[in-house]
Every structure is written in structure tokens, then in C-alpha cells.
């Protein structure tokens, strides 16, 4: 499967219950994402039904599968993602290249996988199982990390490129996470864009964060800094992404501030578009 | 080496990392201890935000020391919370034991219903 088979998604924003009416009203929103763990397919929030009624695609975005974990992905969690995609008529489902629990203990966060050949074999098998259980294509997102593993042998981009090659999984490239890993791990964002197979790009995430003590925290609760919009512009110089979605998860600003933020994202996409 | 071996080895190492981050476990060999501390603190900040949304009464009772009080509560808890909801209720109970929250406040009538439905 290549990205060319995917529909154009356009400009999007993460749908959250706290800003449901805002998302419905914001001009220029062409698609949304919903956190899969926060919805019940049999009882979809009214706001999502309104958006679907207008033909706005809704992408279930999972945060709890842990496809980078040592255990195979849970059939129940996969069934939930599949049911979300069916109920919402979604063109695809997205998740993260991360582990979220180990030994039955929840980490409460998306944690980076060791970027080793051995871990790659495990994750490849996990991704294949996930793909087999889903009725629509799966896209995997690169995560933001505060730490690396001592035995990392590949960059994040090399690991994902290999995974795409082996499984045909699509990419959800989070440019804020590329920037985070450049600051925190010294992995160049531009080099990552050069290495990632952008022909398999499903869509892009962009979000704001905060710097503390020389480290970037990807909080999704602040305006997107120009340095992250620069990474987005770099990506758009290489390929026309099928979609670009703004994530904002806390400390919600006014409707007009969110509209202005979407306009900044659009402008960055157009800066030197491919 | 089989995939089963790879899974077992990955499981052991990921368990060590999660234990260091959420259960006060030792920093596994080779990891940057400072970075894991930053990650652990960031996880506590995230929990604090969710807990404050789930139990605004507890967040209000802890005000203006929510950051310090939640950190103290989290440090005392070696067993990670099974859910955000349990975390929020445990934090409220912890505040009561600290005398920071009145224990004679009756819970809202609807909370019994919510509990009964779960």
C-alpha cells in the first residue's frame, strides 16, 4: 500500500470533548482525529456524528496499543480500534511506535523502543498482527523521547523506514516529535526527513511544547514555535502531505487563537511546497 | 536466536525501564539517570493534570500547593495506580489523611450512581 491510495485529508485538528463545539465551528477544518481509547463505537459523541454528517473524515488515533512492546498487541485493543474505524467510516487508523506498559505495569506515557535490530524483529511481528486485525490501513507515528536506550543502533527514522519496508505500514510523521528528538537526543530533524520513506506518508502532526532545562517537552498545550513550523515547511518541500493535523490537548485557547494557529500551519505548508 | 528469545529479552528490559519510571525502581545499567528522572517527573506532571480534571475538589483542596503535594503523594506510592480514576480518588484520600481536605464533606449523590454502574 502506498500513500497515493489514500484520500486527501487536508488540514485537521485533534477533536477533544473539551473543544467539541470549537472544532465544529472552526473554519477550514477538513479532517479530525479522535483518541480511540476515549470513545465507545456504539455510542459515538454527538459532535463526531455531526462532523461525519458533513463528510469530515475522522481518524481513530490510539495511544494504548503499545505496538513497540515485548508482548504481541492485545486482540481486545485491536478489536476496539477496528470497531472505531468501522463506526466512524475511517480511511485509516493511527498508533505510535512506542511501548506503554511492561510486566503488567502501565507507564502512562508513550515510551521509546530500543532502536536495535532485535527489537525491530519483535515490532515487525507486532505490526503485522495489528494490520491483520484492522479493516483499514494502519499508520505509525514517531514519538517524542526524553531518553534513549544505551544500545540504540539505528536512528528513529532508520527504524521506521525499515518497518515500512518490511510491513508496508504507513507513516504518521509528527514534526514536533522530530524537533523534540533533535533537541533531546541530537537526532537531526532534517536528516530524519531525508531518511523517512515519505511516499508512505499518511499524514502529519504538528504541536507546541515547552523547554525546561535544555530539554523539549511535547506538551500539546502551547502555540507551535516557528522552529517546529520550519520542520513542517521542510517536509512540505519534499512531498505534499495528504493531511496535516494540529494537536492541542490542554490549556485550550480561544476559538480565534486556534483559528490563527491553523492559519500559521497552512502558511508553513505553503512556504516552499513541493 | 528466535523471536521468542527476542521478546523475552525486550520484556525484561522494558520492565526495568517502567519500574524505574513509575515504581521507584533502580535506573537500569547504561541509561542516563538524569533523563529518566526528567521522564519520571514529566509522568507525574501528566498524572497531576488528569487527576486535577477528574477530582477538581481535591485539586482545589490542595491549592496553592498542588504541585508539591501531588509529588509527595506520588513519591509515597510505590505501587503504580491501576487507572487515572483510582489515582484521583487515592490522592483525595491522601489529602484527607494529611488534613488538607475535609473528610466530612459528603460525596455528591450522583457519584454513588456512577460507582454502581461500573
Main CATH class of chain A: Alpha Beta
* Oligomeric organization of the protein chains: heterodimer
Which structural category fits the helices and strands of chain B? mainly alpha
Tally of individual helices of chain A: 9
Instruction: Give the CATH architecture of chain A.
Output: Alpha-Beta Barrel
Radius of gyration of chain A: 17 Å
Characterize the overall form of chain A: globular
Strand content of chain A: 15-25%
Question: Which segments of chain A are poorly predicted (pLDDT under 50) over 5 or more consecutive residues?
Answer: none
**Which series of helices and strands of chain A comes N to C?**
EHEHEHEEEHEHEHHEEEHEH
Weakly predicted, low-confidence segments of chain B: none
Number of contiguous helices of chain B: 6
Name the average pLDDT of chain B: 89
Strand content of chain B: under 5%
Distance between termini of chain B?
45 Å
Count of folded domains of chain A: 1
Instruction: Please give the share of residues in helix of chain B.
Output: over 70%
Integer average pLDDT of chain A: 96
Give structural notes.
- The complex is a heterodimer of chains A (274) and B (118).
- Chain A has 274 residues and is of the alpha/beta class.
- Chain A has a single domain (3-271), classed as TIM Barrel (Alpha-Beta Barrel), CATH 3.20.20.
- Helix content of chain A is 38%, strand content 21%.
- In chain A, the strands form three sheets. Chain A has an eight-stranded parallel beta sheet. A two-stranded antiparallel ribbon of chain A has the order 5-6. Chain A has a two-stranded antiparallel sheet with strand order 10-11.
- In chain A, helix 2 links the parallel strand 2 (31-35) and strand 3.
- The longest helix of chain A is centred in the middle third of the chain and has 17 residues, at 117-133.
- The radius of gyration of chain A is 17 Å and the shape is globular.
- Chain B is mostly helical and 118 residues long.
- Chain B has one domain.
- Helices cover 70% and strands 0% of the residues of chain B.
- Chain B is built from six helices and no strands.
- In chain B, helix 1 packs across helix 2 and helix 2 (33-54) crosses helix 3.
- Chain B is elongated, with a radius of gyration of 18 Å.
- The relative contact order of chain B is 0.09.
- The model of chain B has no long low-confidence stretch (mean pLDDT 89).
